[in-house]
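Researcher: Let's try something more involved. This one mixes different molecule types, so please make sure each is placed in the same coordinate frame as the others.
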Amino acid sequence: MSFREPRAPGAPAQGDGIPLCAPALGGNAWRYLKECLDSGWVSSAGPFVTRFEHELAALVGRRYAVATASGTAALHLALLVAGVGPDEEVLAPALTFIAPINAVRYVGAWPVLIDAEPRYWQIDPDKLAEFLQRECVWRGGALRNRSSGRRVRALLPVHLLGHPADMAPLRDLASRHGLALIEDAAESLGARYRGVPVGSFGDLACLSFNGNKLITAGGGGALLADDAEQARRVHYLSTQAKDDPVEYQHGAVGYNYRLTNLQAALGVAQLEQLEAHIAAKRRIAQRYSEALGQRPGITPMAEAPWAFSTCWMYTVLIDQARYGIDSRALLRALEQGGIVARPLWRPVYTNQPYTSCQTYRCEVAPQLVSQALSLPCSVGLTEAEQERVIAAVLAAR
Ligand SMILES: *Cc1c(COP(=O)(O)O)cnc(C)c1O
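Model: All components are placed in one shared frame. Result:
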């Protein structure tokens, strides 16, 4: 038996099917991977790891990048070095892929889930401000949640689907309330907020190079920082907290969270393609929005005036009353034609480990989740394939 799901997001095409978001593996990938094999540098150190880190830091405009085994590992380390501890709280979006929320639990802290705003689907800064004002209080030199009594330590916005979160108010709220700011930019490398790259706003920021992301290393992540001590600590914890280059002396409970040179080689090759990938994603998004945006009941994902979106995962909202069928019926109709579509992530608090988590005014997130459907948007999607998807969407109702 196999646990592999052939239609997982990021899976390559099957037959004449159209996958959701398959990787595009051109450029220097073969050459760099061969260099690893020829040189013997395949494991968790090597020239491509260092190069990948330098190039990522330069791209986002940070002083340090530390490559990690996954984006989730980077989030875990970010929360650790930000000093978030057991029974503290982290403010995070109710609408997100689950990874950042799980990372909050890895350090023993609890997420407080804030609603999405309806236009760009990112964490709502107004509701966040309201939560901080109404539900939190300074006591004993610490910001506390009135209802739980716990210390509120960090704000963890996620740049969803390639689009930046509204960083100016978020950064302002974090600094006024003494919160560590950790950006989850896993889905949005290359996006810009008022011209400034996402990943450069938080004390720390996390990236992912999973197979379905804009660029992939097969798997992997990175943590971005400007503080030398924090970056050093992240590297230390990610390599089993080894104190001595020779002796097996360990000063903390460490992790095996390093990226391999093989993965970094692919990552470096992919990084050379980042601009081309973004251009392809934006072209695909524009074509979908032109073809589907006039259709009653279909609302394409939007780009805020202050945003440069990478359009990583092209998503539409389907209003059943006006379109005729709902998003899940459309999903099944597309599936009949070999076209893979996917809903967005169910609100975090509907998942078993999080049903008792505090939520704040989550009115919009469940609405978005019931209506949203992501359409095939691989970098390599051909015009003919895209026309097939558009025709299938228009014919489905
Ligand atoms: C993909 C993703 C991650 C990290 O995923 P990994 O598979 O662990 O690299 C984290 N946050 C968000 C929002 C993501 O989409």
